[in-house]
Specification:
Blueprint lengths: L16 E6 L5 E6 L5 H11 L12 E7 L4 E5 L5 H7 L9 E7 L6 H7 L1 H17 L7 H15 L11 H12 L6 H6 L2 H12 L7 H13 L7 E7 L5 E8 L3 E5 L6 E5 L4 E8 L8 E7 L6 E5 L2 H19 L6 E2 L57 E6 L2 H12 L10 E6 L4
Length: about 425
């Protein structure tokens, strides 16, 4: 009986398997790999093929995303995961035909001009990614006039030798509409609401402003305008600050804001930490099946306590960890991950560790929960002194007061995490205990 053929997604035999890596532009690359290759190796092979001219200066910007097309699930794959680990964790759970590997720029540089000058190939790749995300975004709210400006810039880039009066000719515009397709330049939401004749007149009027720009100038201007309406260089996560006792926050991660949170009373953000301040990252998930929760824990330089974020799922915690870890490597020039990926499933009854993972190669020392940080003289629930009269808090004397003042929040966080966490969150729950008379 013949042995079954090896699945193209499973590195289960000694023969090399093949993975199809898709690009934002619609292209793809096939990579043959062995069992031991990691995601970083796959990315390196693919990015080297993007151009034969020199090495990618901004190679650290790239990441790999695994998508299951039928359910719209997506997972960011850490650079140190092997393809065998990817298969065991994700691929084998569903038919391999449902999965899609995507190469994307996830860790963004602070200067697009610098990216354009030092790594033109990566800049073009990044531009294609942003443009495709913009055109396919189902709920993006953008003014028609802005959409027309972006359309003109892309037309100028697409037809780089087009003269200024080319679109004044009806035949040229009909070619653009019928042969190329306006969906390549304008979001479908705008096409559905704007009449074709009005769109044509607007494009003809605006196009002349950009006819003198070079291809690179068109792309930089496109990104500059779009960034005001579509923050493509940021990712947001709804999490909770803390583990046992937590406060909802919306984290914003990006090259300009670092690790920040949204302000509830304004449209701005408040910075929590810079990426180069992060010393260690760990993700953990509880063993309790009824109340499963995942935590992301950050050790921050200068902070008195480990920073806890409770996430809705382990996948969210891991995505956030990968993002912070990638920015740390980008901004520090390090090639080593500071994310301890071992033993993500925690146990409250592990012996001997008290929050320290002995298998962690980076020397990370992160506690698994607030409950495991125990003072030798006792904790808050069990005072060291057995004279309980001065320590008892009666439930009837507890008052909950929801505060919106950032000043009060600062006082709390300064006590918990030190002065580096000023203006940390806008919402804070204070417990006031009145002593018994």
């Amino acid at each position: 009986m013949d042995s079954p053929k090896k699945s193209p997604q499973s590195p289960a035999s000694s023969d090399k398997a093949t993975v199809k890596v898709c690009f934002p532009s619609g292209g793809f690359n096939l990579v043959k790999y062995g069992d031991s290759i990691d995601i970083k190796g796959i990315i390196s092979i693919v990015t080297d093929r993007l151009s034969t001219v020199g090495e990618r200066y901004y190679k650290k910007l790239y990441a790999m995303r695994l998508c299951r097309m039928s359910s719209k699930e997506s997972y960011w794959l850490h650079q140190d995961m092997t393809m065998q680990q990817v298969y065991e964790k994700y691929i084998k759970k569903h038919p391999s035909s449902e999965w899609r590997y995507e190469l994307r720029v996830r860790y963004f540089p602070s200067s697009l001009q610098d990216l354009c000058e030092k790594d033109n190939v990566t800049f073009y790749f990044y531009y294609d990614q942003v443009r495709q995300d913009y055109l396919s975004h189902p709920h993006l709210r953008i003014d028609q006039d802005i959409a027309v400006q972006l359309c003109c810039l892309e037309i100028r880039k697409y037809f780089k030798d087009m003269p200024q009066i080319a679109l004044d000719k009806k035949s040229n515009f009909e070619y653009l509409e019928k042969e190329v397709g306006m969906h390549k330049f304008v979001p479908q939401t705008i096409l559905n609401t704007m009449k074709s004749k009005s769109l044509r007149k607007s494009i003809q009027a605006q196009f002349k402003k950009y006819v003198g720009l070079s291809v690179d100038e068109c792309m930089l201007k496109f990104l500059e305008i779009l960034k005001v309406y579509f923050q493509f260089n940021q990712e947001k996560f709804k999490v909770e600050l803390g583990s046992s006792w937590s406060v909802p926050v919306e984290l914003v991660i990006g090259p300009e804001v670092g690790i920040s949170h949204m302000n509830s009373q304004s449209a701005g953000t408040t910075k929590i930490a810079d990426f180069d301040q992060i010393q260690a990252i760990q993700t953990l998930v509880s063993d309790c099946e009824e109340h499963t929760k995942a935590t992301l824990q950050l050790k921050v330089a200068g902070a008195q306590e480990i920073l806890f974020f409770t996430c809705p799922t382990l996948e969210v915690a891991e995505s956030l960890a990968d993002l912070i870890d990638g920015y740390y490597r980008l901004q520090t020039g390090s090639v080593t991950s500071i994310w301890n990926m071992k033993d993500s499933h925690s146990s409250k009854h592990k012996s001997g560790s008290k929050g320290v993972n002995p298998d962690n190669p980076t020397g990370t020392m992160l506690s698994e929960d607030y409950a495991e940080i125990v003072d030798e003289e006792g904790d808050y629930s069990t005072p060291a002194s057995h004279e309980k009269a001065d320590y008892d808090i009666f439930m009837g004397d507890i008052t909950l007061d929801i505060l919106k003042s950032e000043t009060t929040v600062c006082e709390y966080l300064n006590a918990m995490y030190g002065s580096s966490y000023k203006s940390y969150i806008n919402g804070y729950t204070r417990v006031e205990a009145n002593s018994k008379s």
